[in-house]
Design a protein that fits this description.
By secondary structure, this protein is of the alpha/beta class. It contains 16 helices and 21 strands. The strands form 4 sheets. Strands 10, 11, 12, 13, 14, 15, 16, 18, 19 and 20 form a 10-stranded mixed β-sheet that branches. β2 (about 35-40), α2 (about 50-55) and β3 form a beta-alpha-beta unit. The chain is globular and about 70 Å long. It starts with a strand and ends with a helix.
Length: about 525
């Protein structure tokens, strides 16, 4: 078993049952580290905790506070653990956090002298964790389930002990860090000395009682405040569009040209939002295939230098917009698309859903399947819908070993219900690899598949690898992209999955029709009996 030279610091206060539960899943990884420093911020009258810990071959270091006190910000407790640490790197996690497999190795490897590593925290009930998510603890399935809050970028950190010391550890004064805001404070201090954050493939599950989870879910929704991402943009150029309220468009930066169709519909059940840059080879096919599913299309041309702008033409096109490009800025582009959507909404148009698709992605072309899925979508009570995405490695097969996937099946949040009160911006300041939901809401999965085509040739994979590593992600938002240039992963046939999915949906539709017919017959029999 490989050992890692890292100290794990756990602040502990009245969490006996939660810690015991988490340890049944975490003990193997804890056995691989130099030490687990358990800072017990309360006097323990019985020895239940210590008796329980003895059964595990883990190098525990115990620090105990013998004074009774109410709950307090854990910054003081965490600092005592960091000061006692003997490894060059330290991980700070909560006692109730359940680690995904290889979470500790991922955090340790992502941490360097100029970077601190964080994982993703998901909140859920114990029932959700045990009955739904345990088989997929290390996959993106967790991110898209209905009864989950997250991913949240707080609750875990791996940083060098030297960097912790340079910023004088966590601020213990509430006037500086706020009540329960110790994560915000330490990250701000590290950023000020030039230590940057890197997100790694580490999932930390925070299970809790059903009542606590529902309360957290309610609070996280009702207390949400829009992230002022528009402050990133200050190059605002007014645009005049005949027949539409352009107040929202005037708030969109970098706009140079806008074309709006003259035949706006009163209602669009689904609107496609897409960005394009030098996509003249893909544009026509992309619009035609996506147009089989959506009812309206909005496209942002990111300053293309080829014939892309002229090819953005389709019977379902609502608007196309061209911007001034300096470099690729995914967050800026998607925020602009949301602002364009806002302009359509302000024109008095009723919008049901909006769909995110990239130009190198394709929906299935089976019209019967699309119609059936669309009918189900328009009847659901969910707000955020995730679609299974397959990274095609050639024309017929997809990569079954792709990171953050379950056997190649990678659910991506792409369909969001439009709400008149929703914020037309994304809840992030990260410039790449961020979630596409502008608000939190009930989530569900769909069987509507997306084929990602950029990796379906060795040349395409090499081109994408070079773009990410040499241009788009020089800062290392994602630790590495080596999986893109893997020419020999396990491959699976896409058609086999598609056939199975279509058969399952057909069976579901047949069962629904059978149930409806039975209900109709029962109602008729009841009416006949009443007539007698």
């Amino acid at each position: 078993m490989k050992q890692y030279d890292v100290s794990v610091v756990i602040p502990y206060y009245k969490r006996l049952e939660e810690f015991r539960y988490a340890l049944t899943y975490n003990h193997d990884q804890f056995a691989q580290v130099r030490e687990v420093i358990l800072v017990i911020d309360e006097p323990i009258a019985n020895l239940a905790l210590f008796a329980f810990l003895k059964q595990y071959p883990i190098n525990f270091v115990f620090l105990m506070n013998h004074e009774v006190h109410p709950w307090r910000n854990p910054a003081v407790v965490i600092n005592r653990g960091l000061l006692a640490a003997t490894s060059e790197k330290c991980i700070v996690i909560s006692p109730e956090s359940i680690l995904s497999p290889n979470a500790i190795p991922a955090l340790v490897e992502g941490c360097t002298k100029d970077k601190y590593a964080v994982g993703d925290v998901r909140f859920m009930s114990y029932d959700t964790f045990e009955n739904k998510l345990l088989p997929y603890i290390n996959t993106v399935y967790m991110e898209e389930d209905t009864n989950i809050i997250g991913p949240v970028r707080f609750g875990s950190i791996c940083c060098t002990r030297a960097n912790f010391a340079e910023v004088n550890y966590y601020s213990e004064d509430y006037s500086l860090c706020g009540w329960g805001k110790e994560d915000d404070n330490i990250r701000q201090k590290l950023t000020r000395i030039g230590v940057r954050r890197v997100r790694v493939n580490a999932v930390l599950v925070h299970p809790e009682s059903e009542q606590d989870f529902l309360e957290r879910k309610y609070n996280s929704t009702s207390q949400y405040k829009k992230n002022p991402v528009e402050s990133l943009y200050n190059d605002i150029r007014p645009v005049t569009v005949t027949g539409m309220d352009t107040s929202a468009l005037r708030a969109v930066p970098h706009v140079t040209d806008t074309v709006v169709t003259n035949n706006l519909c009163a209602k669009y059940p689904i609107i496609l939002l897409a960005q394009a840059y030098n996509e003249e080879k893909n544009m026509v096919e992309f619009l035609n295939t996506a147009g089989e599913f959506v009812d309206g299309i909005i496209v942002l041309d990111d300053g293309s230098t080829d014939g892309t702008w002229d090819l953005i033409d389709h019977p379902k096109l609502i608007m196309k917009c061209r911007k001034t490009r300096t470099t690729f800025n995914d967050l800026q582009n998607r925020t602009m698309l949301l602002k364009l959507l806002e302009a359509v909404a302000r024109a008095g148009v009723e919008i049901g859903w909006f769909l995110w698709l990239d130009l190198d992605e394709r929906l299935t072309t089976n019209k019967t399947f699309l119609t059936r899925v669309k009918r189900q979508l328009l009847e659901t009570t969910a707000d955020n819908i995730s679609l299974p995405l397959f990274h095609m490695w050639n024309d017929c097969q997809y990569n079954a070993e792709y990171p953050y996937s379950y056997k190649g099946l990678q659910y991506k949040l792409r369909l969001i219900r439009h709400k008149p009160t929703m914020p037309y911006s994304l809840r992030t300041n990260q410039m790449l690899h961020f979630s596409l939901n502008p608000y939190m809401g009930n989530a569900a999965n769909s069987v509507l598949q997306i084929k990602h085509l950029s990796y379906n040739t060795p040349e395409g994979r090499k081109n994408k690898y070079d773009l990410y590593t040499k241009k788009y992600d020089i800062g290392g938002i994602q630790p590495n992209y080596d999986h893109i240039i893997n020419d020999n992963p396990q491959l699976m046939m896409y058609d086999e999955f598609m056939i199975a999915a279509e058969a399952a949906e057909a069976a579901k539709a047949a069962e629904a029709a059978k149930s409806a017919e039975a209900a109709k017959a029962a109602e008729a029999a009841k009416a006949t009996e009443a007539a007698k």
